[in-house]
Amino acid sequence: MSIITFPSATTSARTANQPARPSLVRLWLQRIRTRRLLAALHPDQLRDAGIEPWRLRHEIRKPFWRG
User: Fold this and answer.
1) What span, in angstroms and rounded, lies between the C-alpha atoms of 63 and 40?
2) How wide is the angle at C-alpha 64 spanned by C-alphas 67 and 50, nearest 5°?
3) Measuring CA to CA, how many Å separate 53 from each of 8, 35, 37, 63?
4) pLDDT tens for residues 9-36?
5) Judging by beta carbons within 10 Å of its beta carbon (0-12, 13-18, 19+), is residue 38 exposed, middle or buried?
6) pLDDT band, residue 7 (cuts 50/70/90)
7) pLDDT band for position 67 (50/70/90)?
8) Residue 11 and residue 61: Cα distance in Å, rounded?
9) Which of 13, 20, 41, 62 supports an S-S bond with 45, CB 3.0-4.6 Å?
10) Backbone angles phi, psi at 21, to 5 degrees
11) Do 57 and 33 contact (CB within 8 A), yes or no?
12) In angstroms, what is the C-alpha Rg of the chain?
């Protein structure tokens, strides 16, 4: 008697039910890029976006591993 398994069917069912989750390194790289872009904004752009200078300084000084 042989045991038949269908690993592709079970893994595809799991991935279909679970949302895609980015890797930790990818998340860190995204945070680095986002904070660099925020730091490069002109003060007029910050004002238009409604971002206060103290909040911007707080955000861009965070290490990449902190969300």
Assistant:
1) 17
2) 60
3) 51, 14, 14, 18
4) 555 555 567 777 779 999 999 999 999 9
5) middle
6) low
7) confident
8) 40
9) 41
10) -120, 120
11) no
12) 21
